[in-house]
Amino acid sequence: METKYLNIAGFVIRINFKLTEWEFALNKCKEGINEYYGGFMMKDKSKKIDYTINFVERKILEMTYRKKEKINLINFFEILNKDTIVTFYQISIFQFQIIIRTILQELLTSGKGFMLHSSSIEINNYAYIFTGKNGAGKSTAMKLLSGKYRALADDTVIVRKINRKYYMFQTPFIEKEAWVKKNSDQLPIAGFFFLEKAHYFKIETIKDKNYTLNRLIKQFFTEQEYVKKQIKILMGFVNHFDHFNKLYFAKDAVKLGWELQNYQRFT
Asked: pLDDT grade, residue 261 (50/70/90)?
């Protein structure tokens, strides 16, 4: 049996590749995980394991047919217990991503974290997070700044509280801008911005906690069973900072970078 370890948002996920006669399927699984999750791979064995994924051989996968909707459903993973999932060598890298997302929802709910629909860039070892409704400019802002600053995310970020401070982590998910290089870095959050497209540049301070919370609820995603707990975590995040921001911006990379460089970051 071969074992790999992923470090995602500070959580350690162990992947066991059980023995199989399907060497081709085994190698394809490992190749896909190495390609898309390489930045999250741990070089050394970890003593602390938060979750385990077991790849096993199963020649026939269970399928369900919904006659009314004419839909075929395939069983591609099974939850054995609170910290172990079993999956099969036939799955694709996109199905593996669903498994990772399922695991992260569980771990983040108990680990004071959440996922947001946001983009992000790094300036001077700090994360700047941009969010907003569809079309607000999350991808646009990230791409404008990526010529000078490191792009961290195009569509999703992880925010987690560790030792009384909030940090941003990259997700391992395959997004629209697949060129963004990802790893397990933990970055303190310097600023959080609700984007508004404009013909000018302006950073407007938001101190209304209810306004901020309501806007964030529209951008974070979680499974129904975790909603109540995740909203409490989100409330803690909003109350932690003195203010959030609205960022009005136009398509000018130099001016946008100047605004952020001169912004008084979170402390």
From this structure: confident
Indicate if 163 and 83 belong to the same structural domain: no
> Which amino acid is located at 218 in the chain?
K
Please give the Cα distance from 124 to 203 (Å, whole number).
19
Q: How many folded domains does the chain comprise?
A: 2
C-alpha 76/C-alpha 92 separation (Å) is: 10
- Final residue before a domain boundary, out of 66, 95, 110: 110
Whether 70 and 164 share a structural domain: no
Residues belonging to the chain: 267
Q: Which domain holds residue 23?
A: 2-110
Residue type, 73: L
- Evaluate whether 144 touches 195 at the Cβ level (below 8 Å): no
* Contacting residues for 91 by C-beta, under 8 A, at least 6 apart: 29, 76, 77, 99
User: Which residues are within 8 A (CB) of 124 and not within 5 positions of it... i.e. 6 or more apart?
Assistant: 190
Element (H, E) at 26: helix 23-37
Q: How do residues 108-142 score in pLDDT, each as one tens digit?
A: 999 889 999 999 999 999 999 999 988 888 999 99
**Does the global pTM surpass 0.85?**
yes
CB 265 within 8 A of CB 190: yes
Percent of the chain with pLDDT over 70: 100
* Whether 142 and 26 share a structural domain: no
* 16 and 34 together in one domain: yes
* End-of-domain residue from the set 80, 110, 140: 110
- Amino acid type, 213: L
